[in-house]
Amino acid sequence: MPFNTHNFIFIFLPFFLLSYYLADVRAKKVILLLYSVLFYVIGNYKRLESIFILVFLTFMNYVFLLFIVKAKRDIVKKTAFIIAVSMNIIVLCLFKLQLFTNFIPLGLSFYTFHFISIIVDAYKNKHLSYKLIDYLNYILFFPKLLSGPIMRYDNFISEYSQRQSSENYVVKGLFFFSVGLALKCLLADNIAYIINQINVYGFDSISILTAWVGMYSYTMQLYFDFAGYSLMAIGVAYAIGIKMPDNFNLPFCSKSISEFWRRWHITLGHFFRDYIYIPLGGNFANKRFIRQSLNLIIVWLVTGFWHGFRINYILWAMFICIIIILEKAFLINIYKKHEIIGRIVVCALMPFSFLIFSITNLNDLKIYIHKLFEFSSVINMRDFQVIIKNYAKIFVIGILFLTKYPKALMEIVCKSKYMMIIASASLILISIYAMSMMNSDVFKYFAF
Questions:
Q1: Is 236 exposed, middle or buried (0-12, 13-18, 19+ CB in 10 A)?
Q2: From the centroid of its chain, how far is CA 118?
Q3: Is the preceding peptide bond at 143 cis, omega within 30 degrees of 0?
Q4: Are 353 and 320 spatial neighbours (Cβ–Cβ below 8 Å)?
Q5: Distances in Å between the alpha carbon of 122 and those of 68, 152, 190, 270, 340?
Q6: How far is CA 75 from CA 80, 123, 227, in A?
Q7: Does pTM surpass 0.90?
Q8: Residue 353: CB partners within 8 Å, gap ≥ 6?
C-alpha cells in the first residue's frame, strides 16, 4: 500500500496511530506487528506469491539465525551463516534476472538486505535478544519494509525498546510525513510531466535545450520521489517514537561526487560500506591505491546489479566509480583549492549519470546523449518553447528545492509545535488536492 494514497492517509495511518496509542504497553509490539502484516497483505493481495516469498524468507532466516546464535560448534555456526547469506543472495538474483517470473516481489531488495544484515551481525557475535516478535517487527516494520531506509537490527532494537510515546512525537512525525508527501505529490509527480512530454516528442526530435531540461528533470523527479518516500517513512516511525536514520542529506550541496554518495541513499551506502567495502579491506589507510580502487569497483558493480541486471545500470555504476577513483587519485586536491569546481562537477555529472540510469535501451541512450551536444538544433526549438511555457515554474521550484534553504525552513518550523501542526495540515490538504487532480505515480524505487 503506497503512502501517497487516500486509503493510507485517511484510513490505515489514523487507525494505526489510534490503535497503537490506546494499546497497553505490553500490547504495542503486537499491534505494530499486526499492522505491518496488514500493510503488506493489503498491498499484495493480488500477488499472493509476494506474500508467500516474504513469509518463507522471514521464517527460514529466523531458523538460520537461531542456529547461528545457539550453535556451540564453530563449524555449525559458519555453515548456517554461509547457507543463510547465500540463500538470500540467490533468491534476490533469481528475481532480478527474471529467470522464472517477470515480476519482483514488492520490497524484496530492501527486506533481503535486512535479512543479510541481521545474519551477518549475529555471526559476528553481537549479543542481542532475538525474540521472535522483535525479529518479526524488525523485518516487517511497515514504514521501511518496501523501500527502506535500511536499518540495522541493533539500532532498531535500541529505538524499538526505548521508544517514546508522546504528543510531540506524533506532531513532529506527521510533519515529516507531510513534507515527504508534498515532495512526492507536488514536486516529483509534477516534474514527471516534463519527462512525459519529452517522451511524446521522442528522443530523435528534441532540441539541445529540451534534452538538458529533461536530464535535470529526471534527476529531480528521482530525488524528490525517493527522498519524499524516505521522509514519509521516517515520519511514520517517529510518530510512535522510533527514530530511523536519514536517507538523504542535501546531496546536491556536495563538493565532490564522493561526498554526494555519502549524502544520497545514505543507508544503502552504509550497508555496502559495512558489509562489502570494509570486509574487502576498505581503503587500506590510503596506502594501496590499486587495491582500494579494486574494492570500489567491486562495490559499485554490486550496486549496479542490485538495481537490476541491465547494462545501463552497470554503465551507470562504472561511470560513478571511475569518477570517484579519479577524485581519490588527484581531483580532490583540485577541489580543495577551488571548491567551485567540485560543485560544478556534481551539478553537471550527477544528472548525466542519472540519465544513464534512467534509459534502459542503449540505442535510445546513445540518441539522447547525442542530443545533449547537437548544437545545430538551436535553430528550431519549438519543443523547448512549449516546455518553458507549460513547466518553467515547476522546473525552477524543483531547482530551488535542491538547495539548503528548504531544510533550513523545516528546522525553523520544527521549533514550534503549532507551526508544525499548521504546516502539516496545509501540506497534506494541498497534496491530497493534487492527488485528486492527477494520477499520483507509484514510488519509483518500488521497481527495485
A1: buried
A2: 19
A3: no
A4: yes
A5: 7, 11, 44, 18, 45
A6: 9, 12, 43
A7: yes
A8: 316, 319, 320
Residue 319 CA to residue 317 CA, distance in Å, equals 5
Sequence letter at residue 321: C
Q: Which residue has the cell 551536444?
A: 373
- 179 neighbors 246 (Cβ within 8 angstroms): no
- DSSP, collapsed to helix, strand or coil, labels residue 77 as helix
- Do residues 289 and 295 lie in contact, with contact meaning Cβ atoms separated by under 8 Å? no
Per-residue pLDDT of the chain (448 residues; tens, 9 = 90+): 789 999 999 999 999 999 999 988 889 999 999 999 999 999 888 888 899 999 999 999 999 999 999 888 889 899 999 999 999 999 999 888 877 777 888 899 999 999 999 999 999 876 778 999 999 999 999 999 999 899 999 999 988 887 777 788 999 999 999 999 999 999 999 999 999 999 999 999 999 999 999 999 999 999 999 999 999 999 999 999 999 999 999 999 999 999 999 999 999 999 999 999 988 887 665 557 888 899 999 999 999 999 888 999 999 999 999 999 999 888 888 998 899 999 999 999 999 999 999 999 999 999 999 999 988 877 778 899 999 999 999 999 999 999 999 999 999 999 999 999 999 999 999 999 998 887 767 777 776 6
Interatomic CA distance for residues 361 and 184, integer angstroms: 26
Residue 293 has which C-alpha cell? 580502487
